[in-house]
């Protein structure tokens, strides 16, 4: 049913109308060929708490969210250098750290990742000390487990 409706919607929109919609999404996101995940091409641009970061990703679109530590760490590339951050896909990071949706072992804390030196850590969810939101869409089951997070933090 959904495929049928999508094809009907495309027919109604026409190729000329559909192309700008696809181009706009392509200009603001990047698909990682290694994982299949789609990332926003830049973070939110200002310091946020963890809850604000989570809310920001929901405003990007219905299937956007914060990544796990394992998902975010797949973006680490020591050969890349985008404004001092070793991150692939030419993703723009404007702050020091990126919040993740991975909980820390301490109550009220969540994990973050730093791309300048492949560092990860944890902080209180209410802190906004240089933390940004980088949003991901898609599903890679091998990156959604606590074991995957632990492996990424080694």
Characterize the structure shown.
The protein is α+β, with helices and mostly antiparallel strands. The protein folds into 2 domains: 1-28, no CATH class; 32-152, Roll (Mannose-Binding Protein A, Chain A). It contains 4 helices and 8 strands; from the N terminus they run αββαβαβββββα. A 4-stranded antiparallel β-sheet has the order 1-2-8-3. A 4-stranded mixed β-sheet has the order 6-5-4-7. Strand 4 (97-103) and strand 5 (109-114) form a beta hairpin. It is globular and about 35 Å long. It starts with a helix and ends with a helix. The relative contact order is 0.21.
Poorly predicted tracts of residues: 1-26
CATH homologous superfamily placement of the largest domain: Mannose-Binding Protein A, subunit A
Rounded mean pLDDT is 81
CATH class group of the largest domain: Alpha Beta
Count of helix runs: 4
Structural class: alpha+beta
Strand content: 15-25%
The name of the CATH architecture of the largest domain is Roll
The 3D shape can be described as globular
Roughly how many Å apart are the termini? 45 Å
The percent range for helix content is 25-40%
Number of strands: 8
In CATH, the topology of the largest domain is named Mannose-Binding Protein A, Chain A
Radius of gyration: 17 Å
The largest sheet, given as strand count, sense and whether it forms a barrel, is:
4 strands, antiparallel
Task: Please provide the ordered H/E string of secondary-structure elements.
Answer: HEEHEHEEEEEH
């Amino acid at each position: 049913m959904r495929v049928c409706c999508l094809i009907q919607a495309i027919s109604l929109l026409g190729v000329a109308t559909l192309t700008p919609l696809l181009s706009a999404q392509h200009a603001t996101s990047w698909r990682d060929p290694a994982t299949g995940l789609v990332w926003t091409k830049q973070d939110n641009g200002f310091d946020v708490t963890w809850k604000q970061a989570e809310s920001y990703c929901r405003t990007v679109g219905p299937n956007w969210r914060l990544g796990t530590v394992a998902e975010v760490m797949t973006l680490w590339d020591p050969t890349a250098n985008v404004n001092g951050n070793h991150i692939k896909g030419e993703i723009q990071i404007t702050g020091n750290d990126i919040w993740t949706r991975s909980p820390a072992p301490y109550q009220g804390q969540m994990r973050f990742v730093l791309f300048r030196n492949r560092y990860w850590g944890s902080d209180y969810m209410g802190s906004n000390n240089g933390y940004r939101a980088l949003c991901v869409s898609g599903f890679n089951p091998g990156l959604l487990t606590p074991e995957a997070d632990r492996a990424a933090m080694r």
